[in-house]
Automatic annotation (TrEMBL):
Native organism: Streptomyces zagrosensis
Keyword Ribonucleoprotein: no
Domain NAD(P)-binding residue range list: 40-341
Pfam hit, one: GDP_Man_Dehyd
Identification of the protein by name: UDP-glucose 4-epimerase
PANTHER family tied to this protein: DTDP-D-GLUCOSE 4,6-DEHYDRATASE-RELATED
CDD domains assigned: Arna_like_SDR_e (cd05257)
Record key words, sorted: Isomerase
Record EC number: 5.1.3.2
Region (Disordered): 1-36
Keyword field contains Isomerase: yes
Single annotated GO MF: carboxy-lyase activity
InterPro entries associated with the record: Arna-like_SDR_e (IPR045869), NAD(P)-bd_dom (IPR016040), NAD(P)-bd_dom_sf (IPR036291)
Amino acid sequence: MSSSPTTPSSATAATPPAAAASPASPASPAGAPGSAPVAVTGAEGFIGSHLVETLVTAGHRVRAMVQYNSFSSFGWLETLPADVLDHVEVVLGDVRDPGSVNGLVAGVDAVYHLAALIAIPYSYRAPHSYVETNITGTLNLLEAVRHQEIPRLVHTSTSETYGTAQTVPITEDHPINTQSPYAASKAGGDRLADSYHASFATPVVTLRPFNTFGPRQSMRAVIPTVIGQVAAGQRTITLGDLRPTRDFSYVKDTAAAFLAVGTAPAEQVVGHTFNAGTGGEISVGELVRLIGKLMDTTIEVHEDAQRIRPADSEVMRLVCDASRLRAATGWAPAHTLEDGLGHTIDFFRDPANLARYKTDLYNV
C-alpha cells in the first residue's frame, strides 16, 4: 500500500537474516517492545516508512523488508533520520517468494504486512500481477506466520473493498463490493486472513484504512497530485472526476492505528477487522479548493479522461466508522484534515522533496 521515490514497494519481502532473534515472552502482548524485532513488509513505501518510524519511536527494533532491486534502493527508508535507522535492519526480497518471507519472519514478535500493488488504474492493465502480490503474497505471509508460530500478523486491507457506500458511515459489517481488480485482490487477501484465523487459529488482525495521505505519498493519489503540481508552479492542474467523496486520514494517524492493533492484547483484536478513518468526508472538488486556500492560490482544474475510472468501477463515496477500533484500542485521529494538508504542503514545498517527483506526468 505504498510507493517509493525510486522503486515500487509493491511486492516486498526479505532474505533470511543473519541471526534470528528469540520470540517474545508469552506474558507480553504480541508486538510489545522487547528483545525480538518486529517485521514490516512494504517498508520502503509511503505508509510503510512512516510505520517504521512510529515503531522505532515506540521502542521497537524493526526488520524492514524492501522489494529486491538491482540498485540497492531502500526507497523512502533512505530519508529517515540516522537515529531511526540505527534500529532498523533492511532486508531485500519479495512477498511472492515463500523462502524470503520465511526468512523475514524468523524470530520476530509481530509482522505488519503492508506490501501490495495499490494503484487502481494500473490494476486494469495488469490484474494478474495484483493477484500474485496481494493474494499469493498474503498467503505466503500467513503460511510463514502459521508455521513459525509468530504471535501476531497485522494484515492491511483497504476501504476500496467496500465499494461505493451503501450505508453511511461505513462499519466493518458493510457488504464487500469490489469495483476494481485492485479491490478484488485486496478482498481476496482479506478472506485468506479470515480463513487462516478460523482454520488454524493464526493470530491475524486486519486493519482497513480509509484514504491515507501525507508526506512521501506517490503522485498516483489525488492530494500529492494537486499539491505537487501547485508547488511546481502550475495553476491549471489535471485531475479526473471531482465528484467522489473520501474520508482522508493523515499518515501519522494511520501508522498509530497499525501500532494500536499490533500491540493490543490478543483477546481485544485478533480475529477481527478494524476500520481506520476520521468519520468525515470531502469531495475531490472541495478538496482542491481547500488546498488552494491553504496554498494561497487559485487552482483551475482540467479534466483528463484517462484519469477517470470506468463508470461502474468508480467508488463514489467512502466515509468511515472507526468506533470498533476506538473501543478495542483507544485509537483516535490526532490530526485534522487541515493539519495534515499543512504538513504535506510543507513537505512538497521543500525543493529536495519536490525533486523526487515527476509533476508533469500522469502517475498511474
